[in-house]
Amino acid sequence: MSASKLPHVGTTIFTTMSALAQKHGAINLAQGFPNFPIDPQLQAQLVRVSQENAHQYAPLQGLVTLREKVANLIDRQYTREVDTDEILITAGATQAIFTIIQALVFPGEEVIILDPSYDCYEAPVHLAGAKAIRLPLTASFDPDWDLIEAHLNERTKLLIVNNPHNPSGKIWQESDFLELERLMQRFPNLLLLSDEVYEFITFEKQHQSIHERSAIRERSIVVSSFGKTFHITGWKVGYLVCPKALMTEILKVHQFLVFCVNSVAQHALAAYLDLVDVNTLSSFYQQKRDIFRAGLKNSRFTLLPAEGSYFQVADFSAISQQSDVEFCQELTVKFGVAAIPISVFNANGHDANLIRFCYAKTDETLQEAIEKLCKI
Protein backbone atom coordinates (compact mmCIF):
# COMPACT_ATOMS: atom_id res chain seq x y z
CA MET A 1 0.00 0.00 0.00
CA SER A 2 1.24 3.53 -0.77
CA ALA A 3 2.03 6.05 1.94
CA SER A 4 -0.86 7.85 3.65
CA LYS A 5 -1.47 11.57 3.12
CA LEU A 6 -2.77 11.69 6.70
CA PRO A 7 -0.63 9.12 8.52
CA HIS A 8 -1.60 10.33 12.00
CA VAL A 9 -5.35 10.29 11.40
CA GLY A 10 -7.31 7.29 12.65
CA THR A 11 -10.73 6.79 14.17
CA THR A 12 -11.77 9.97 15.95
CA ILE A 13 -12.33 10.03 19.70
CA PHE A 14 -15.95 11.02 19.04
CA THR A 15 -16.58 7.83 17.06
CA THR A 16 -14.67 5.74 19.60
CA MET A 17 -16.55 7.06 22.63
CA SER A 18 -19.96 6.86 20.95
CA ALA A 19 -19.30 3.25 19.97
CA LEU A 20 -18.20 2.47 23.53
CA ALA A 21 -21.32 4.16 24.90
CA GLN A 22 -23.53 2.12 22.59
CA LYS A 23 -21.76 -1.14 23.46
CA HIS A 24 -22.22 -0.60 27.21
CA GLY A 25 -25.59 1.13 27.12
CA ALA A 26 -24.13 4.35 28.53
CA ILE A 27 -25.69 7.79 28.30
CA ASN A 28 -23.87 9.55 25.47
CA LEU A 29 -22.82 13.02 26.58
CA ALA A 30 -19.72 12.70 24.39
CA GLN A 31 -20.70 13.71 20.87
CA GLY A 32 -22.05 17.21 20.36
CA PHE A 33 -25.47 16.49 18.98
CA PRO A 34 -28.94 17.00 20.54
CA ASN A 35 -31.29 14.09 21.27
CA PHE A 36 -34.54 16.08 21.24
CA PRO A 37 -36.92 16.81 18.33
CA ILE A 38 -36.49 19.71 15.93
CA ASP A 39 -38.87 22.67 15.94
CA PRO A 40 -42.29 21.53 14.62
CA GLN A 41 -42.37 24.68 12.46
CA LEU A 42 -39.17 23.61 10.72
CA GLN A 43 -40.47 20.08 10.32
CA ALA A 44 -43.64 21.45 8.74
CA GLN A 45 -41.59 23.45 6.23
CA LEU A 46 -39.53 20.38 5.39
CA VAL A 47 -42.69 18.35 4.73
CA ARG A 48 -44.17 21.16 2.63
CA VAL A 49 -41.15 21.74 0.38
CA SER A 50 -40.57 18.01 -0.06
CA GLN A 51 -43.93 17.86 -1.80
CA GLU A 52 -43.00 20.71 -4.14
CA ASN A 53 -40.53 21.06 -7.00
CA ALA A 54 -37.46 21.34 -4.79
CA HIS A 55 -35.57 18.18 -5.68
CA GLN A 56 -33.08 19.19 -8.37
CA TYR A 57 -29.68 20.84 -8.11
CA ALA A 58 -29.60 24.10 -6.24
CA PRO A 59 -27.37 26.90 -7.57
CA LEU A 60 -23.65 26.52 -6.89
CA GLN A 61 -23.57 29.26 -4.26
CA GLY A 62 -26.90 28.33 -2.65
CA LEU A 63 -30.51 29.40 -3.15
CA VAL A 64 -30.72 33.15 -3.62
CA THR A 65 -33.73 33.24 -1.27
CA LEU A 66 -31.78 31.50 1.48
CA ARG A 67 -28.76 33.76 1.00
CA GLU A 68 -31.05 36.78 1.20
CA LYS A 69 -32.46 35.50 4.50
CA VAL A 70 -28.92 34.93 5.83
CA ALA A 71 -27.95 38.48 4.80
CA ASN A 72 -31.00 39.80 6.67
CA LEU A 73 -30.06 37.73 9.74
CA ILE A 74 -26.51 39.10 9.76
CA ASP A 75 -27.84 42.64 9.38
CA ARG A 76 -30.29 42.19 12.29
CA GLN A 77 -27.82 40.49 14.60
CA TYR A 78 -24.58 42.29 13.80
CA THR A 79 -25.56 45.45 11.86
CA ARG A 80 -23.44 44.34 8.92
CA GLU A 81 -24.73 44.62 5.37
CA VAL A 82 -23.49 41.77 3.19
CA ASP A 83 -24.27 41.06 -0.45
CA THR A 84 -25.67 37.66 -1.39
CA ASP A 85 -22.52 37.16 -3.50
CA GLU A 86 -20.53 37.24 -0.23
CA ILE A 87 -22.47 34.26 1.19
CA LEU A 88 -21.91 30.58 0.36
CA ILE A 89 -24.23 27.81 1.54
CA THR A 90 -22.11 24.78 2.47
CA ALA A 91 -22.59 21.12 3.35
CA GLY A 92 -22.02 21.90 7.01
CA ALA A 93 -19.35 24.00 8.69
CA THR A 94 -16.76 21.24 8.30
CA GLN A 95 -17.04 21.39 4.50
CA ALA A 96 -16.84 25.17 4.69
CA ILE A 97 -13.59 25.01 6.67
CA PHE A 98 -12.07 22.36 4.39
CA THR A 99 -12.98 24.36 1.29
CA ILE A 100 -11.61 27.63 2.67
CA ILE A 101 -8.25 26.08 3.52
CA GLN A 102 -7.92 24.24 0.20
CA ALA A 103 -8.76 27.40 -1.73
CA LEU A 104 -6.64 29.94 0.10
CA VAL A 105 -3.65 28.14 1.63
CA PHE A 106 -0.67 27.22 -0.56
CA PRO A 107 2.15 24.66 -0.11
CA GLY A 108 4.84 25.92 2.26
CA GLU A 109 2.57 28.43 4.00
CA GLU A 110 1.63 28.25 7.67
CA VAL A 111 -1.71 28.15 9.46
CA ILE A 112 -2.02 28.91 13.17
CA ILE A 113 -4.50 26.77 15.13
CA LEU A 114 -5.26 27.42 18.80
CA ASP A 115 -5.44 24.34 21.04
CA PRO A 116 -7.55 22.73 22.30
CA SER A 117 -9.05 22.76 18.82
CA TYR A 118 -11.72 21.00 16.80
CA ASP A 119 -10.24 18.11 14.83
CA CYS A 120 -11.30 19.31 11.36
CA TYR A 121 -8.84 22.22 11.26
CA GLU A 122 -5.50 20.46 10.86
CA ALA A 123 -6.12 17.78 8.21
CA PRO A 124 -6.97 20.17 5.33
CA VAL A 125 -3.86 22.20 6.15
CA HIS A 126 -1.71 19.09 5.63
CA LEU A 127 -3.62 18.20 2.45
CA ALA A 128 -2.87 21.69 1.12
CA GLY A 129 0.85 21.03 1.59
CA ALA A 130 1.04 23.68 4.31
CA LYS A 131 2.23 23.55 7.91
CA ALA A 132 -0.14 23.63 10.88
CA ILE A 133 1.25 25.58 13.84
CA ARG A 134 -0.66 24.37 16.91
CA LEU A 135 -0.41 26.85 19.79
CA PRO A 136 -1.98 26.32 23.23
CA LEU A 137 -4.56 28.64 24.72
CA THR A 138 -3.96 29.70 28.32
CA ALA A 139 -5.10 27.52 31.23
CA SER A 140 -8.35 29.53 31.26
CA PHE A 141 -8.80 28.93 27.49
CA ASP A 142 -7.97 32.50 26.45
CA PRO A 143 -5.76 33.31 23.44
CA ASP A 144 -2.11 33.83 24.38
CA TRP A 145 -1.51 36.84 22.17
CA ASP A 146 2.21 37.10 22.94
CA LEU A 147 2.66 33.47 21.90
CA ILE A 148 0.60 33.97 18.75
CA GLU A 149 2.54 37.07 17.79
CA ALA A 150 5.84 35.26 18.33
CA HIS A 151 4.80 32.66 15.72
CA LEU A 152 3.51 35.05 13.07
CA ASN A 153 5.80 35.60 10.08
CA GLU A 154 5.68 36.24 6.34
CA ARG A 155 4.72 32.58 5.73
CA THR A 156 1.65 32.73 7.99
CA LYS A 157 -1.37 32.72 5.67
CA LEU A 158 -4.24 32.01 8.03
CA LEU A 159 -5.17 32.22 11.70
CA ILE A 160 -8.09 30.00 12.76
CA VAL A 161 -10.13 31.13 15.77
CA ASN A 162 -13.20 29.55 17.36
CA ASN A 163 -15.59 31.70 19.38
CA PRO A 164 -17.64 30.59 21.31
CA HIS A 165 -15.03 27.94 21.86
CA ASN A 166 -15.36 24.19 21.54
CA PRO A 167 -14.56 22.37 23.84
CA SER A 168 -14.37 24.96 26.64
CA GLY A 169 -17.41 27.15 25.98
CA LYS A 170 -15.24 30.23 26.49
CA ILE A 171 -16.26 33.55 24.87
CA TRP A 172 -13.79 36.20 23.78
CA GLN A 173 -13.50 39.53 25.56
CA GLU A 174 -13.21 42.93 23.87
CA SER A 175 -9.48 42.94 24.64
CA ASP A 176 -9.05 39.79 22.53
CA PHE A 177 -10.57 41.47 19.49
CA LEU A 178 -8.36 44.51 19.96
CA GLU A 179 -5.26 42.30 20.10
CA LEU A 180 -6.40 40.44 17.00
CA GLU A 181 -6.93 43.69 15.12
CA ARG A 182 -3.49 44.92 16.17
CA LEU A 183 -1.82 41.75 14.88
CA MET A 184 -3.72 41.78 11.61
CA GLN A 185 -2.68 45.38 11.11
CA ARG A 186 0.93 44.42 11.75
CA PHE A 187 0.72 41.48 9.32
CA PRO A 188 -1.28 42.83 6.36
CA ASN A 189 -1.24 39.54 4.40
CA LEU A 190 -2.71 37.50 7.25
CA LEU A 191 -6.21 36.11 6.72
CA LEU A 192 -8.63 35.06 9.47
CA LEU A 193 -10.97 32.08 9.59
CA SER A 194 -13.50 32.67 12.37
CA ASP A 195 -15.44 29.54 13.33
CA GLU A 196 -18.61 30.89 14.98
CA VAL A 197 -20.91 27.88 14.79
CA TYR A 198 -22.13 28.39 18.38
CA GLU A 199 -22.77 32.12 17.88
CA PHE A 200 -26.40 31.98 19.03
CA ILE A 201 -25.78 29.76 22.06
CA THR A 202 -24.38 32.18 24.64
CA PHE A 203 -25.45 33.05 28.15
CA GLU A 204 -24.41 35.81 30.55
CA LYS A 205 -21.77 37.16 28.18
CA GLN A 206 -22.82 38.50 24.80
CA HIS A 207 -21.20 36.96 21.73
CA GLN A 208 -19.23 39.38 19.61
CA SER A 209 -18.71 38.41 15.99
CA ILE A 210 -16.06 39.21 13.44
CA HIS A 211 -19.04 40.52 11.45
CA GLU A 212 -18.95 43.49 13.87
CA ARG A 213 -15.22 44.21 13.47
CA SER A 214 -15.05 46.53 10.47
CA ALA A 215 -11.26 46.88 10.76
CA ILE A 216 -10.63 43.22 9.86
CA ARG A 217 -13.76 41.66 8.40
CA GLU A 218 -12.62 42.35 4.82
CA ARG A 219 -9.75 39.91 5.46
CA SER A 220 -11.90 37.39 7.30
CA ILE A 221 -14.06 34.40 6.52
CA VAL A 222 -16.83 33.75 9.07
CA VAL A 223 -18.25 30.22 9.28
CA SER A 224 -21.72 29.51 10.71
CA SER A 225 -23.89 26.41 11.10
CA PHE A 226 -27.61 25.88 10.69
CA GLY A 227 -27.00 22.44 12.16
CA LYS A 228 -25.79 23.85 15.48
CA THR A 229 -28.19 26.80 15.52
CA PHE A 230 -31.38 24.82 14.86
CA HIS A 231 -30.23 21.43 16.28
CA ILE A 232 -30.37 19.75 12.87
CA THR A 233 -26.79 18.46 12.81
CA GLY A 234 -27.72 15.60 10.46
CA TRP A 235 -28.86 18.00 7.75
CA LYS A 236 -25.24 19.14 7.31
CA VAL A 237 -26.02 22.67 6.16
CA GLY A 238 -23.93 25.71 7.08
CA TYR A 239 -22.68 28.87 5.45
CA LEU A 240 -19.68 31.13 5.19
CA VAL A 241 -19.37 34.86 4.63
CA CYS A 242 -16.35 36.55 3.06
CA PRO A 243 -15.32 39.32 0.64
CA LYS A 244 -15.96 38.67 -3.05
CA ALA A 245 -12.25 38.38 -3.90
CA LEU A 246 -11.86 35.48 -1.48
CA MET A 247 -15.23 34.02 -2.49
CA THR A 248 -14.05 33.72 -6.10
CA GLU A 249 -11.28 31.33 -5.04
CA ILE A 250 -13.44 29.46 -2.51
CA LEU A 251 -16.13 28.79 -5.15
CA LYS A 252 -13.53 27.21 -7.44
CA VAL A 253 -12.93 24.49 -4.84
CA HIS A 254 -16.54 24.28 -3.67
CA GLN A 255 -17.81 23.41 -7.15
CA PHE A 256 -15.57 20.36 -7.37
CA LEU A 257 -16.05 19.27 -3.76
CA VAL A 258 -19.85 19.24 -3.49
CA PHE A 259 -21.01 21.57 -6.33
CA CYS A 260 -24.16 22.43 -4.36
CA VAL A 261 -25.98 21.66 -1.12
CA ASN A 262 -29.19 19.68 -0.46
CA SER A 263 -31.95 21.66 -2.16
CA VAL A 264 -34.88 20.49 0.00
CA ALA A 265 -33.05 21.54 3.18
CA GLN A 266 -32.23 24.93 1.66
CA HIS A 267 -35.86 25.61 0.69
CA ALA A 268 -37.04 24.57 4.17
CA LEU A 269 -34.49 26.78 5.93
CA ALA A 270 -35.28 29.76 3.71
CA ALA A 271 -38.92 29.57 4.79
CA TYR A 272 -38.10 28.83 8.43
CA LEU A 273 -35.86 31.88 8.86
CA ASP A 274 -39.00 34.03 8.54
CA LEU A 275 -40.63 32.15 11.43
CA VAL A 276 -37.89 31.77 14.03
CA ASP A 277 -36.15 34.11 16.47
CA VAL A 278 -32.56 32.92 16.95
CA ASN A 279 -32.34 34.99 20.14
CA THR A 280 -34.55 32.47 21.97
CA LEU A 281 -31.84 29.80 21.68
CA SER A 282 -29.75 31.19 24.51
CA SER A 283 -32.49 30.82 27.13
CA PHE A 284 -33.37 27.34 25.79
CA TYR A 285 -29.81 26.08 26.25
CA GLN A 286 -29.16 28.09 29.40
CA GLN A 287 -31.94 26.16 31.11
CA LYS A 288 -30.22 22.90 30.20
CA ARG A 289 -26.82 24.23 31.25
CA ASP A 290 -28.24 25.32 34.61
CA ILE A 291 -29.96 21.98 35.21
CA PHE A 292 -26.71 20.15 34.51
CA ARG A 293 -24.55 22.46 36.61
CA ALA A 294 -26.97 22.52 39.56
CA GLY A 295 -27.26 18.74 39.45
CA LEU A 296 -23.48 18.28 39.64
CA LYS A 297 -22.98 20.87 42.39
CA ASN A 298 -22.65 18.15 45.03
CA SER A 299 -20.64 15.77 42.85
CA ARG A 300 -16.88 15.34 43.06
CA PHE A 301 -16.40 17.08 39.72
CA THR A 302 -15.23 20.70 39.59
CA LEU A 303 -17.11 22.54 36.86
CA LEU A 304 -15.38 25.21 34.79
CA PRO A 305 -17.31 28.28 33.56
CA ALA A 306 -19.66 27.55 30.62
CA GLU A 307 -20.18 30.84 28.77
CA GLY A 308 -21.38 29.53 25.41
CA SER A 309 -21.87 26.48 23.15
CA TYR A 310 -23.61 23.43 24.65
CA PHE A 311 -20.59 21.94 26.38
CA GLN A 312 -19.54 21.74 30.02
CA VAL A 313 -15.89 21.12 30.93
CA ALA A 314 -15.28 19.36 34.24
CA ASP A 315 -12.13 18.73 36.28
CA PHE A 316 -12.01 15.16 37.65
CA SER A 317 -8.70 15.43 39.54
CA ALA A 318 -10.49 15.01 42.90
CA ILE A 319 -11.81 11.65 41.69
CA SER A 320 -8.93 10.01 39.82
CA GLN A 321 -5.34 10.46 38.75
CA GLN A 322 -5.89 8.46 35.58
CA SER A 323 -5.28 10.04 32.21
CA ASP A 324 -8.35 11.79 30.84
CA VAL A 325 -8.68 9.14 28.12
CA GLU A 326 -8.57 6.31 30.66
CA PHE A 327 -10.99 8.13 32.93
CA CYS A 328 -13.49 8.64 30.09
CA GLN A 329 -13.29 4.95 29.21
CA GLU A 330 -13.93 3.96 32.83
CA LEU A 331 -16.69 6.56 33.14
CA THR A 332 -18.45 4.98 30.17
CA VAL A 333 -17.97 1.31 31.03
CA LYS A 334 -18.25 1.42 34.83
CA PHE A 335 -20.52 4.38 35.53
CA GLY A 336 -22.62 4.55 32.36
CA VAL A 337 -21.91 8.08 31.10
CA ALA A 338 -19.77 8.88 28.05
CA ALA A 339 -17.69 12.09 27.88
CA ILE A 340 -14.80 13.35 25.78
CA PRO A 341 -11.22 13.80 27.11
CA ILE A 342 -9.85 17.29 26.45
CA SER A 343 -6.29 16.10 25.76
CA VAL A 344 -7.31 14.79 22.33
CA PHE A 345 -7.96 18.40 21.24
CA ASN A 346 -4.28 19.27 21.93
CA ALA A 347 -1.47 18.58 19.47
CA ASN A 348 0.92 17.98 22.37
CA GLY A 349 -1.58 15.74 24.18
CA HIS A 350 -1.56 18.02 27.24
CA ASP A 351 -3.71 16.40 29.92
CA ALA A 352 -5.08 18.67 32.67
CA ASN A 353 -7.60 16.14 34.05
CA LEU A 354 -10.42 17.78 32.11
CA ILE A 355 -13.33 16.18 30.26
CA ARG A 356 -16.20 17.59 28.17
CA PHE A 357 -19.88 16.82 28.58
CA CYS A 358 -22.55 17.79 26.02
CA TYR A 359 -25.75 18.99 27.71
CA ALA A 360 -27.78 19.37 24.49
CA LYS A 361 -30.01 16.56 25.69
CA THR A 362 -33.54 16.16 27.00
CA ASP A 363 -34.04 17.11 30.64
CA GLU A 364 -34.77 13.44 31.39
CA THR A 365 -31.44 12.37 29.87
CA LEU A 366 -29.61 15.04 31.86
CA GLN A 367 -31.24 14.01 35.14
CA GLU A 368 -30.37 10.37 34.53
CA ALA A 369 -26.76 11.31 33.79
CA ILE A 370 -26.59 13.55 36.87
CA GLU A 371 -27.72 10.68 39.11
CA LYS A 372 -24.98 8.44 37.75
CA LEU A 373 -22.26 11.10 37.93
CA CYS A 374 -23.13 12.01 41.53
CA LYS A 375 -22.58 8.41 42.62
CA ILE A 376 -18.91 8.51 41.63
Proportion of β residues?
Answer: 5-15%
Shape: globular
Measured on Cα atoms, how large is the radius of gyration?
21 Å
Strand order of the largest sheet: 2-8-7-6-5-3-4
Mean pLDDT: 96
Gap between N and C termini = 47 Å
Helix content: 25-40%
Question: How would you portray this structure in words?
Answer:
Helix content is 38%, strand content 15%. It has 13 helices and 13 strands. The longest helix is centred in the N-terminal third of the chain and has 15 residues, at 64-78. It is globular and about 55 Å long. The termini are far apart.
Features:
376 residues; alpha/beta; seven-stranded mixed β-sheet; four-stranded antiparallel β-sheet; 13 strands; globular
Helix-strand blueprint:
Elements: H1 13-24, E1 27-28, H2 40-50, H3 64-78, E2 87-90, H4 92-104, E3 110-115, H5 122-127, E4 131-136, H6 145-151, E5 156-162, H7 174-186, E6 191-195, E7 220-225, H8 226-229, E8 238-241, H9 244-257, H10 263-272, H11 281-295, E9 302-303, E10 311-315, H12 324-335, E11 337-338, E12 340-341, E13 354-358, H13 363-373
Helix pairs in contact: 1-12, 2-10, 3-10, 4-9, 11-13
What is shown here, in short?
This protein has 13 helices and 13 strands. It has 376 residues and is of the alpha/beta class.
